[in-house]
Amino acid sequence: MCLDIDDTLIDFTSAGKRALSLLIGRGDLWPLWERITDWHVARVVAGEIDYASMHHRRTQCFLAEIGVVLEAEDVARFERRRKEVLRSSWRLFDDVLPCLEWLRAADVLIAAVTNASGAHQRAKLADLGLTRFFDHVAIAGEVGAAKPDPVMFHAVCAVLDCDPSEAAHVGDKLHTDAVGARDAGLEGVWLDRTGGDAEVPEGVHVIGGLDELPQLLVSEFARIGVPAQR
């Protein structure tokens, strides 16, 4: 079982919005932050820059976009403060621990699969007590490919010693997570916590919370080897 981290296990968007709003005094710039972050993460995955450089350049670019030009040391100070606030704001969704405990009790191998920074993601998992549940943590910048690239999903399956057809991936992004996994030969599961009205492609499963995942695994994915609930 492969699981995305941000906004699947951890309510990252709420924490990110809170940190950014606190530092800049505005609550409407999260979409801009996400677009700039995605562009810089793609450069990391391509091997053009490392994560440390990405964080600084991303923040510098964002600030410049809103008309704030700072010296390098001031950008670094802003980023350090943002991370401090962010780290203090991380929270698990209520359905995470029961789901992970069920998967572990069912002897299902579990991998965290993320496009974000390895250091920060591992820190989140440790801070929130999730490290013990995972057999593997796959980081895009370390693999050299990012979701939805099939290479990312296949690399995880190779580490877990399973065929893609024997695995499922769950994530909050319809195309990056669910469609990407489906196209890589895994079962793709879209975690739609908000009940959106997006058109769901054929072959993609939808759940509204991780509390629905055990039943989906038992009823739909018997070939993955998940035992029936007792």
What does this structure look like?
The chain is of the alpha/beta class. It has 10 helices and 6 strands; from the N terminus they run E-H-H-H-H-H-E-H-E-H-H-E-H-E-E-H. The chain has helices at residues 12-24, 30-45, 51-65, 72-89, 96-105, 118-127, 140-143, 150-160, 174-183, 213-220; strands at residues 2-3, 111-114, 136-139, 168-171, 187-191, 204-207. A 6-stranded parallel beta sheet has the order 3-2-1-4-5-6, with helices on both faces. Strand 4, helix 9 and strand 5 (187-191) form a beta-alpha-beta unit. The longest helix is centred in the middle third of the chain and has 18 residues, at 72-89. The model has no long low-confidence stretch (mean pLDDT 92).
Describe this structure in a few short sentences.
The protein has ten helices and six strands; from the N terminus they run βαααααβαβααβαββα. It is of the alpha/beta class and 230 residues long.
